[in-house]
Every structure is written in C-alpha cells, then in structure tokens.
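Wed. Picked up where I left off yesterday with Helix-turn-helix domain-containing protein. The coffee machine is broken again, so keeping this brief.
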Amino acid sequence: MGQTAVRTLRADAERSVRVILEAAERVLAEDPGASMEQIAAAAGVARTTIHRRFANRQALIEALASSAARQLAQAVDDGRPDTAPPLVAMHRITANVLQVKGAWAFALELPTEPGSEAAVLQQHIARRCITVLERARADKLIDEAADLDWVRRVYYALLRESLQDDPAGADPDALAARVIDTLLQGAGPRA
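Structure written out below (tokens, as returned):
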C-alpha cells in the first residue's frame, strides 16, 4: 500500500472518530445513559464501527473527555497567554473557551481519572490560566494581594455560569467581555 493510500485511510479513520465523538457529545448530553448503539445511529455509522474504534463505552467516554480537553487546551493556547497583552489574552482565551465549552459541555463536565490525558490537560490549562493572571496582576489589572488560584476558580465559575442560559446561541465575544468585566471589576458601582 502506498503512502497516499495509508494517509487516506488514516484521514478516513480520524474523520470517523471525529463524527463518532461529536455524536456521542450530542447524544450523551441529552441522555447520559445512552447506549453505544444510540451513539452509532446518531453518528450514522454501524455499531461495529464504534466497537472497532473504541473497545467499550468507557473507552469512548475517555476519548470524548480527552478530545474535548485537547480542544480546550488549544483554545487557551490560541489566546496567546504568554505574549498577547494580558487583557487581550484574557478576552481571546475567554471567547475561545466559551465556544469550546458550549460545543462540548457534556464531555468537559466528565470527571477525569488522575493521570489521564484529560486530567493532565486540565492541569496544563490551569497553569496557563495562572500565567495570564500573573501577567494581568503585573499590569495592575488584578490587585497585587489577590490569591490567583482563587481568582482562577472564580473565573471558571463565571465561565460555567455564562453558558447556563443559551450555550449554543450566545455570542462568545459579548459573553467574554461580560466575564472579564465581572472578574476584573466585580459587581460594585463604577467610579
């Protein structure tokens, strides 16, 4: 088999896995107890295709969590937390994360096994968040005495809450502006 044929097979397999994971997100978000057969039907593939790609339901769930975490980590990295001006980075990261979280809400709420790819990625994301918060503090956007781990946890809560009403239809930039404004300015009166 030629190299082009191998690449085509690999691309087809990757597409198949992506379609299955997208269907699993939709189906499991509506019914967390859905079967592999229901997921296969939603993906438009044979049940055997799912079983060929994933040994069992748990393997599918783990792949779903890892895929969503990879996309979330990429969304954070695309916001350039190390190089963009902190306020710009915070806005970009927030808008990017809201888009990913809106599309992969079920998968991103799954508990992660310690040491799993998803858990390692979540730790990476937390470190990247602290990086941008440190830069924001250096730019005097955050009080120098603020506990940045607490600020990060509040930020995560704001992200979760902002997606509660209409995760799919919300404008990520408008929500990002609201989240960042609330995080940095709070709810107190403006000067």
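Quick read: The chain has nine helices and no strands.
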